[in-house]
Recover the amino acids of this structure.
C-alpha cells in the first residue's frame, strides 16, 4: 500500500476531529511516551471500573495524522473493554483498526505509539513489569 | 524568474551513481542535503583505491605501504587546510562536527571555564552546538545565555551586543542555520566576541560545504565541520583551531600517536595537530574527504554558492506563491544558505515527508535537532528542503508538484 492511501477520509477525520481528546479527571491510569524520530507524543488516561473495565479512555498528544488518529481510534476501541484485553492487542489489530495492511518501517512506529502507551499504563496498573508491556519489537526505538 | 543554472547540473549528476537510481518508480529528487549529501564517484573511488592500493597504518611504519598511507592521509589534510585557508597544524581530523565541538568543550572548556562564567549561544543552534556547552556549564557552574532572533529569523544584534557587555568566556554560534538557513556574519561576530574577551567557536557544518571559507578572514578561534555534508564519507570531520590556542590546550582523547614520550611517570604530547588525534585515524575517510575537496574545487566554491542562491531564490518564489505554505527564516536568498523550511496547512511534516517520498522527493521532517528553535517559533516540527550542486530547477518543480499532491490528499 502506498502511503497516500492511508490518508483516507477516516484518518483525516480522526486527525482533525479527535474523539476522546483531552484530560480525564479523575483517572486511575496515566501513561505517556514519545517517538524521538518525529516528535509524536501520546498520553493516555483511563478510568477503571470496579469490575476492571476501562470505563473512560482519553488521550492527549501532538504529532502526525497517523499517530493522532490511531490514538483516538484506539481510545474508542478500548472503551468498555476489560483491562486484560490490552494484553492480546497486537500490531495487526492496530493496522486493521486503521484499515490498512502495512505502513512500512518509517511510519509503523507512529501507528503503534498509542498501543505502546496503553499497554504501558495498563501493565503498570496491573503490577506487571513495564518492559513486558512494549509487546512487539516493531515498536522499539 | 530567470532559471539560469550557473553549474552544468546535467554533467554533475552523471558523477553521482546514486542519482541514477529510482525511488518508488520515480526519479530520485534528493533535497535532504543539509542532513547529508551524496558522494561522487571520485570520492567513492578514492576510498576504494586507498584500501586496494595503499592501506597501512599512517605514521607508524617504515615500510612502503605505511609511507604511502601517511602520504595519502597527510595529503588529504593539506587539501582540507588549503580549502579553508588554514595551516595543516591547525587542521585536526575528527569523526565529524559533533566530535569537533566536543573536543573544544573538553580540551579548552574543562581547563578554562569557571563557576559563574558566561557561555553565549544562539537560538538557532543545532543540538550539537548546545548540549556540549550545557554539560560544560553543569560541570563547571558556568551559565548559558542564548542570543534571540528577529522576526525574520536573523540574529538579534542588540541582544548579542548586550551579552558581549557581560564578558563571556565562550561565544559559540552557527555560521549557517540548518533550519532557517540564516547566514551569520561570522567575521563580525567573532571580532566582537574577541573584543569582549571570549574564545569563538563557529559551527561550519552548513557553511563550509556551500560557500568559500577563509578562517583567517573569519577570525574565529575554532571552526567545526563534517565531511559527509560536503560529498565526503561519513565518520570524518574537521576541527580548525587557531595555533596559539591549540598549543596551550590539553588533549581531548589520549592514547597512541598523540604522545611524544610515555614513561611510567607520565607523558608528553605530540606536536600539532597530532596531539588531538589519538589512536589510528580514519585515514580512508580522510582520503575520501580530500577527494571531495578536489571535486568541490574543480567546480569552485563561489559558483557552488551562486548556484544554491539561484535555486533558493526560485524555491522561495514558488513557495510564497503557493497557498497555505508558511516558510521560516529570511526570505531573501542572499541572506541564507540553500535551506528552505516550511509547513503547509495542518499537514504534519512527518506526513508531508511520507507523501513527498512517494513521489521520489526526499526531504527532512521533524525538529531538525533544533528543539529550542522549534519552541521559540512555537511549531512542533517543520519540513525542510535543502539543496546542493546536483540539484536543478526541475528538482524544485518536482517538489512543488509533490506539494500540490499532498495538498489534495489532505483536502486543503
Amino acid at each position: 500500500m502506498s502511503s497516500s492511501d492511508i490518508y483516507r477520509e477516516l484518518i483525516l477525520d480522526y486527525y482533525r476531529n479527535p474523539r476522546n481528546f483531552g484530560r480525564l479527571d479523575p483517572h486511575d491510569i496515566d501513561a505517556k511516551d514519545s517517538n524521538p524520530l518525529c516528535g509524536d507524543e501520546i498520553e493516555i488516561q483511563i478510568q477503571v471500573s470496579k469490575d476492571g473495565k476501562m470505563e473512560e479512555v482519553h488521550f492527549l498528544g501532538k504529532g502526525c495524522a497517523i499517530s493522532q488518529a490511531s490514538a483516538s481510534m484506539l481510545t474508542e476501541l478500548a472503551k468498555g473493554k476489560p483491562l486484560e484485553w490490552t494484553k492480546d492487542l497486537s500490531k495487526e489489530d492496530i493496522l486493521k483498526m486503521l484499515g490498512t495492511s502495512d505502513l512500512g518501517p518509517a511510519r509503523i512506529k507512529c501507528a503503534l505509539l498509542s498501543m505502546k502507551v496503553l499497554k504501558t499504563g495498563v501493565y503498570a496498573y496491573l503490577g506487571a513489569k513495564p518492559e513486558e508491556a512494549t509487546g512487539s519489537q516493531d515498536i522499539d526505538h | 524568474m530567470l532559471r539560469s543554472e550557473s553549474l552544468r547540473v546535467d554533467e554533475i549528476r552523471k558523477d553521482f551513481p546514486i542519482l541514477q537510481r529510482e525511488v518508488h518508480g520515480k526519479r530520485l529528487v534528493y533535497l535532504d542535503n543539509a542532513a547529508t549529501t551524496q558522494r561522487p564517484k571520485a570520492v567513492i573511488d578514492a576510498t576504494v583505491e586507498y584500501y586496494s592500493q595503499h592501506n597501512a597504518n599512517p605514521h607508524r611504519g617504515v615500510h612502503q605501504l605505511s609511507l604511502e598511507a601517511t602520504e595519502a592521509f597527510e595529503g588529504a589534510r593539506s587539501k582540507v587546510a588549503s580549502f579553508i585557508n588554514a595551516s595543516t597544524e591547525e587542521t585536526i581530523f575528527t569523526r565529524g562536527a559533533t566530535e569537533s565541538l566536543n573536543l573544544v568543550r573538553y580540551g579548552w572548556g574543562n581547563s578554562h571555564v569557571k563557576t559563574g562564567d558566561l557561555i553565549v549561544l544562539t537560538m538557532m543552534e543545532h543540538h550539537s552546538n548546545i548540549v556540549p556547552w550545557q554539560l560544560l556549564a553543569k560541570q563547571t557552574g558556568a551559565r548559558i545565555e542564548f542570543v534571540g532572533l528577529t522576526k525574520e529569523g536573523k540574529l538579534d544584534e542588540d541582544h548579542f551586543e548586550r551579552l558581549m557587555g557581560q564578558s563571556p568566556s565562550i561565544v559559540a554560534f552557527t555560521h549557517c542555520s540548518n533550519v532557517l538557513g540564516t547566514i551569520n556574519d561570522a567575521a563580525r561576530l567573532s571580532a566582537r566576541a574577541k573584543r569582549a574577551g571570549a574564545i569563538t567557536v563557529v559551527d561550519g557544518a552548513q557553511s563550509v560545504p556551500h560557500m568559500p571559507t577563509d578562517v583567517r578572514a573569519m577570525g574565529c578561534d575554532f571552526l567545526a565541520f563534517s565531511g559527509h555534508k560536503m560529498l565526503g564519507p561519513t565518520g570524518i570531520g574537521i576541527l580548525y583551531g587557531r595555533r596559539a590556542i591549540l598549543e596551550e590546550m590539553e588533549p581531548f582523547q589520549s592514547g597512541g600517536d598523540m604522545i611524544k614520550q610515555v614513561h611510567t611517570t607520565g607523558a608528553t604530547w605530540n606536536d600539532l595537530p597530532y596531539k588531538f588525534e589519538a589512536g589510528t585515524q580514519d585515514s580512508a575517510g580522510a582520503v575520501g574527504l580530500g577527494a571531495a575537496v578536489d571535486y568541490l574545487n574543480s567546480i569552485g566554491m563561489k559558483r557552488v554558492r551562486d548556484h544554491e542562491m539561484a535555486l533558493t531564490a526560485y524555491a522561495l518564489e514558488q513557495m510564497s506563491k503557493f497557498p497555505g505554505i508558511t516558510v521560516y527564516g529570511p526570505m531573501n536568498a542572499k541572506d541564507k544558505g540553500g535551506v528552505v523550511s516550511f509547513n503547509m496547512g495542518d499537514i504534519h511534516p512527518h506526513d508531508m515527508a511520507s507523501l513527498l517520498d512517494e513521489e521520489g522527493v526526499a526531504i527532512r521532517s521533524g525538529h531538525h535537532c533544533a528543539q529550542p528553535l522549534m519552541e521559540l517559533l512555537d511549531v512542533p516540527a517543520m519540513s525542510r528542503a535543502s539543496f546542493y550542486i546536483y540539484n536543478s530547477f526541475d528538482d524544485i518543480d518536482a517538489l512543488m508538484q509533490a506539494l500540490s499532491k499532498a495538498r489534495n490528499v489532505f483536502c486543503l
User: Anything to note?
Assistant: The longest strand of chain A covers residues 40-48. The two ends of chain A are 23 Å apart (CA to CA).
